[in-house]
Amino acid sequence: MPQKVAVLGTGKIGExxxxxxxxxxxSTADLLITARRPERAxxxxxxxxxxxxxxxxxAKNADTLILAVKPQDMTTLLEELAPHLPADRxxxxxxxxxxxxxxxxxxxxxxxxxxxxxxxxxLVDEGMSVISGGSHATEEHLLRTEEIxxxxxxxxxxxxxxxxxxxxLSGSGPAYFYFLVEAMTDAGILxxxxxxxxxxxxxxxxxxxxxxxxxxxEHPVKLxxxxxxxxxxxxxxxxELERHGVRAALIAALEAARDRSRELAxxxx
Length: 269
Ligand SMILES: NC(=O)C1=CN([C@@H]2O[C@H](COP(=O)(O)OP(=O)(O)OC[C@H]3O[C@@H](n4cnc5c(N)ncnc54)[C@H](OP(=O)(O)O)[C@@H]3O)[C@@H](O)[C@H]2O)C=CC1
Ligand SMILES: O=C(O)[C@@H]1CCC=N1
What we know:
This protein has 269 residues and is α/β, with parallel strands linked by helices. 54% of the residues lie in helices and 13% in strands.
């Protein structure tokens, strides 16, 4: 019998994963989704042709459940699922902060739980999904999880103690780059460029830099040094970045994201 996978809470990340699974060749007949609002359910069904079911039906009929609701909604969802979930189901959580121990406490004894922190570039098959198994998750469960997440990017296994840090770096990571592009586009406008041209220049610089970081094998310092000519333009910019404490700001920002992930552990609002 083919494995059925259900996405429970098909919001931004749930839909991104669903679309990735379909691109990767999963049959829509092997997928189920759940949504809280009927209009959202209808829109998703129209867009993907996947059957929309209740959370309880998903618990009964899917072999693997991907829980993609907000951390603050997780406890309510687990209360709904627990009485109906056979203990052999694989439960994958994509929620920031929430530890596998909380799922193990609230779901039937022995339920295998895998915690995954994906990011939105799964939409373009360039995601990163950071994976940790709970205490009942076997190698087979981790492989099943990787089978779902590998087609939409890279995967990395880490001890669960590193998940809050991974969330700060990787789950939230794309947002920092969008923020930088937005700020640099504003700079382009200050320098007199039209917005669309400023945007294109910065986006292409970002893509070029990202591909070089990934493919050259060079340390980022080396790559930056190659751009930084003596008495040139780049060093003038770098001096301002250092003067304004951008490096320290980034370190503090990621530490704040890590701390927020820790806070979400118990479903904090
Ligand atoms: N966005 C991202 O980049 C990432 C998010 N995550 C994690 O993914 C999870 C979802 O985040 P995100 O997609 O941004 O949030 P969204 O709010 O977009 O998605 C959550 C979805 O869950 C639905 N929902 C809530 N409760 C239930 C329920 N009981 N039954 C069915 N559906 C329900 C919501 O419905 P409604 O539309 O009615 O509110 C919403 O559509 C979070 O735990 C987050 O930490 C992880 C990695 C990256
Ligand atoms: O902002 C958040 O809480 C989620 C988790 C990681 C990315 N987005």
